[in-house]
Amino acid sequence: MPSSHLPHKIVLIAFDGAQMLDITGPMDVFAEANTACEESGRPPAYEIVFAGPRVGLIPTASGVELNAKVSFFDENLVADTLVVCGGRGARMAADDAASIETIGKLVDRAKRVVSICTGAFVLAATGRLDRHRVTTHWKYCDTLARRFNAIEVDADAIFISDGKYFTSAGVTAGIDLALALVERDLGRPIALEVARELVVFLRRPGGQSQFSAQMAADASAVDPDRFAELTRWMADHLSDDLSIDALATRVSMSPRNFARRFAAALGMPPGKYAQALRMDAARRLLTDGEVPLAIVARRCGFNSLETMRLSFQRHLKVAPQDFRARFHHRGAPSRAAMV
Questions:
Q1: Are 47 and 27 in contact (CB under 8 A)?
Q2: Among candidates 53, 125, 59, 115, which has minimal Cα distance to 84?
């Protein structure tokens, strides 16, 4: 924190038709961090400002209107952390030259710049994300990549940090990113207190997939409950034998019949499902801990470290050690962004 104890100014900007949780989710995280600071005898860490294209009520996609006390066109507006919130209005604002020029100037003056969901379209339109890695809501990743081909879009991550730029996936991922920023700024105990107050996990790792293996399977499944007990067991026994023969024996079916029925019910073969479970688990361990790579491979059921390396290269186009370098979180507060 600055020696003068001046609060770090967070400006959240949104447009007509914004996704309300993109605004209120991170805003509540920062507000609860202030409360936690005060309860521990510290001054409030953040000054929180909501800005719109004009002063007054800004309609959200849910129909609720939020009151912007300042316009982001105000020449006197400055932000230590600038947060661009997503929604239909953000995607439309990416085509508005006046908005993009103004936001570009705010970006240049800010110490830290954040986009929530499709707020990434606005930042990309300013050109400031060129040659940076970013993410957004899974539904719009391909569109973002096609429209702004100078940026590198990671369609799978929950949130990404690259330099002073922080981008998150859709909706609730903004809460994950805000909690990660609080942990950087104020330390783990404050972030944990905020998470407890909001009844959420302290932090889903940024490198965690936007979809777990189970969610991906459910999305294409015809009968997701058909093997629910088995898939729960698989997730808890990744280092066991998850071959078709072993799984078929567990459910008292012939291997051929089991493989056919599993694929029909869940939309993917048993082997592919087991591989996805193992990849999910490995990503979590690499992101959130210091477990050696060989032990990660063994715990997650890969036959060897080389097998895990090949799986990461095939599915994520990155080696496990490079994935850890990108996403590993050590929990130490970073004062730089708060000064």
A1: no
A2: 115
Residue 333 covered by a domain: no
Residue 224 has pLDDT above 80, yes or no: no
Cα dist. 83→145, 167, 168 in Å?
Answer: 21, 9, 11
CA angle (9, 167, 93) in 5-degree steps: 80
Same domain, 134 and 277: no
The predicted-structure confidence for 111-157, as pLDDT tens digits, reads as follows: 999 999 999 999 999 999 999 999 999 899 999 999 999 999 998 88
pTM (two decimals)? 0.69
Are 155 and 142 in contact by the 8 Å Cβ rule? The answer is yes
| Range of the structural domain that residue 78 is part of | 8-209
Is the dihedral angle over the CA atoms 137, 27, 11, 203 positive or is it negative? negative
User: CA angle, corner 184, sides to 182 and 190, nearest 5?
Assistant: 45
Task: Name the DSSP class of 42.
Answer: -
For range 188-211, the mean pLDDT: 71
Which residue, 156, 182, 209, sits at the end of a domain? 209
